[in-house]
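Archive maintenance. Older records in this collection stored only the sequence; we are now back-filling the structure field for every entry so that each record is complete. The fields below show one back-filled record exactly as it appears after the update. Entries are processed alphabetically, and Cytochrome P450 is next in the queue.

ARCHIVE ENTRY
Title: Cytochrome P450
Organism field: Salix brachista
Length field: 283
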Amino acid sequence: MIASSEIMLERWRHYESKEIDVFLEFKVLTSEIISKTAFGSSYLEGQHIFDMLTRMAHIISGNSYRIRIPGIGFFLKTSDDIESENLEATIRNSFMKMMKRREQEAMLGDIDGYGNDFFGFLLEAYHDSDKTKKISMSMVINESLRLYSPIVAVTRRVEREIKMGKITVPANMEVIISTLAVHQNPEIWGEDVHLFKPERFAEGLAKATNNNIAAFFPFGLGPRNCVGVSFSITETKVALSMILQRYRFTLSPTYAHCPVEVLTMCPQHGVQVILQPYEPKLL
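Back-filled structure field:
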């Protein structure tokens, strides 16, 4: 995480006092960290795989709400079907190639075991250094996730018939729970629900959600939530800590606020900011 963030910040030196799209920068950073963590692969290999995954996500998103006759895909394939199958095969082959190379390096003794790509102890040892401050990094991250969750909805199947107010939900019915609706419900979060207020998390999640902690689920709920929650939060804290040591930033006049769903929530036109080098004042 630290090495990849350092590379990104070194690249940012060319954009000081200029406009830069940090959404694209963070996409590259995330894909590189995941690639190196999982496989120790080079940046180019990881970037190639994640470019293909991004393209597949666009295909899936574009076909999510299209009505199709069950089974027709076995006999009549669309151009999207063909492209997604080719992408899936290429992605699988890329992963297998990296895995086989890692096994060969391990057998030849070029690396210790199968490598030490994931610094798991950081997840256990990491603590906020700013807990004594009024607004902590965790509060800022939680409030950002509340307003702009990675997922816009979760789907669950009802095990038994239940009543929800005046509505009876039969067993085996699939229920779609809107993250956006719950995270911006004034009955839970208060009348200032549409404002960015990190301090609402100052006294913990229970207080912020009016004693309904299940009302905050940016990564899903229960045993089927995102497996990378802790890793992604740690990645965010590490990257932000390193960025704020060097820069302050403001939104660029060219920024257009337009969040859209492409499997996950993302800014349609990017996030343009103006970078200003941070010069701490000496006492």
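Update note: The CA atoms of residues 9 and 243 lie 7 Å apart. Confidence is low (pLDDT under 50) at residues 112-132.
Entry marked complete.
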